[in-house]
Amino acid sequence: MNPASLQPASPQPPASQPLDLIILGAGAAGMMAAIACGEAAMHNGWPMPRMTILEKNARPGIKVLVCGGGRCNLTNAGDIDFLIAQFGRNGRFLSPALRHFDNAALRAWFAAQGEPTHEEHDGKIYPDSNQARTVVDAMVRRMAQLGVLCHAGPTRAATQIQWNVTSKLFTVCTADDTTFQSRYLLICVGGQSYTRMGTTGDGYRFAESLGHHIITPRPAIVPLLCRESWVAQLQGVAVPDVEVRIETPGPLPRLATGKPTPSINDLLFTHFGLSGPAVLNLSEIVAELLEKFTPVPLRVDFLRRHSRPQLSAMLHTWHDESGRKLVKTMLAQLLPQRLAEMLCHLSDIPPDQPCAALTARQMHTLSEYLKACRFHVHQTRGFQEAMVTAGGVRLSQVNPNTMQSRLNPHLFLAGEILDLTGPSGGYNLQLAFSTGRLAGWTIAQCLANG
Ligand SMILES: Cc1cc2nc3c(=O)[nH]c(=O)nc-3n(C[C@H](O)[C@H](O)[C@H](O)COP(=O)(O)OP(=O)(O)OC[C@H]3O[C@@H](n4cnc5c(N)ncnc54)[C@H](O)[C@@H]3O)c2cc1C
Question: Which residue, judged by its Cα, is nearest atom 29 of ligand 1?
């Protein structure tokens, strides 16, 4: 559906008359908030709120379109406690939003819009269409049914916000110098990662201008650059089920994230370093540590299902019973071939060396590379490539039961702009949908109560 064709079902007020609600950002949170606001009014027989979304991109939901590689991993099947745990120390903030609209409710909502979903590996939930496009279409369709007006395009980007304490109205100025006024304002313009998708950190400036404190944003779910130049030769090699640990000289410093390590998942070698979920899910912690020291050492266990004694016994069996086979050939039964060859090379095992010629020293060095391969991370790929932004609006200034600012009851905040970050796996979209839904529903109630 062409969003430009989104027409209000109910008449919009003349330009001079304030709106009930302005939503900044038509991403996952903003669209769900608008829908919730309209659905709450419809279900309760309240007057339909006069609301407008201002969106910087030419169309709503552009970032959702790239989610999950274009397939949109829209939530995760874990129970509420599991979902909360994924967000580390700040996760408890999400409890009311998830109880208001959890993953089951989200899936039921999309199913009711003709978008059934299914579960895949690691509890990841995808639309049956396997296309993010249909997820966005379903939301845009529902907004049109509810009469939500969306002004989209670079000229409609919000540039400035003012709150008039006497008239109790917000004035939002857009890039083309148009002004909009409203009784309530919901800011859900996302973070400052993947800036080419319109998310350039504007929301932090807006929130700060309204008195909110911003926890320093940093890139999260982001690939890492490491000093080991040999990784470039393995570009594109994916290694399933590895364990990645951060290895600091002393105890790990107390981290703001409060997130667990190690990380167990798949690892991907890139031309500059490391990626894949096992690394991406640790990257927020690494980014925080890089502010304290460089490089941050990582230790990777490529064969986490083999204990060291088991591995040693296996190498001796190769030596004794498969002596004519090449070491790299035996290793390639356990690991991707290119990685097997590289680890042999690093262990000073020539490509044509048979197992019978394995020395005790080679076995020891190879075991070290297999069980505790060291990488030294000196940088992340930054906001340009980070999937989400850690940090954001300080949670103690937002009421978790409503998403209402504690500084101004007419102001609401939802989605990635908040100081909440989950790992990859559908958690961040669920965060956006749940907080957006709760904000929209609460605003409808506030409007109904006058
Ligand atoms: C490549 C990639 C893949 C991802 N895959 C997944 C996945 O599969 N599952 C998952 O859970 N999460 C995924 N994420 C994360 C997910 O996209 C975000 O967590 C989620 O979109 C945040 O929702 P939001 O509504 O808070 O912000 P956004 O979806 O970022 O929406 C914010 C909107 O605000 C608009 N905006 C910004 N500034 C202004 C302004 N000044 N005025 C008006 N509008 C403005 C932006 O254009 C944008 O449309 C992925 C992210 C990336 C980058």
Answer: 27
**Distance from residue 73's CA to the centre of ligand 1 (Å):** 13
Q: How far apart are CA 23 and CA 323, in angstroms?
A: 69
Task: Provide the 10 A C-beta neighbour count for residue 253.
Answer: 12
The string of DSSP letters for 6-63 reads ---SSPPPPTTSPEEEEEE--SHHHHHHHHHHHHHHHHHTPPPP-EEEEESSSSTTHH
| Helix pair 427-448, 28-44: axis angle to 10 deg | 40
Are 319 and 395 contained in the same domain?
no
Dist. CA 55 → ligand 1 center (Å): 12
Give the domain range for residue 178.
3-218+385-448
Parallel, antiparallel, or unpaired for β 124-127 and 75-76? antiparallel
Claim to verify: residue 128 and residue 212 sit in the same structural domain: yes
Q: Whole-model pTM above 0.90? A: yes
Is residue 337 located within the same domain as residue 406? Answer: no
Question: Along the chain (450 residues), what's the average pLDDT of each consecutive run of 10 residues?
Answer: 41 68 98 98 96 97 96 97 93 98 98 98 96 98 95 96 97 96 98 92 97 95 96 97 87 64 92 96 92 93 97 96 94 97 97 96 97 97 95 97 98 98 96 98 96
Bridge partners, 172 (sequence order) = 161, 180
Ligand 1 pocket list (CB less than 6 A): 24-30, 54-57, 62-64, 66-68, 72-73, 157-158, 188-190, 194, 198-199, 202, 387-388, 415-416, 426-429, 432
Q: What is the CATH number of the domain that holds 435?
A: 3.50.50.60
Q: Whose CA is nearest to atom 6 of ligand 1?
A: 67
Give me ligand 1 centre to Cα 372, in Å.
36
Q: Which atom of ligand 1 is nearest to the CA of 417?
A: 26
111 C-alpha to center of ligand 1: Å?
22
Distance 302 CA to ligand 1 centre (A): 33
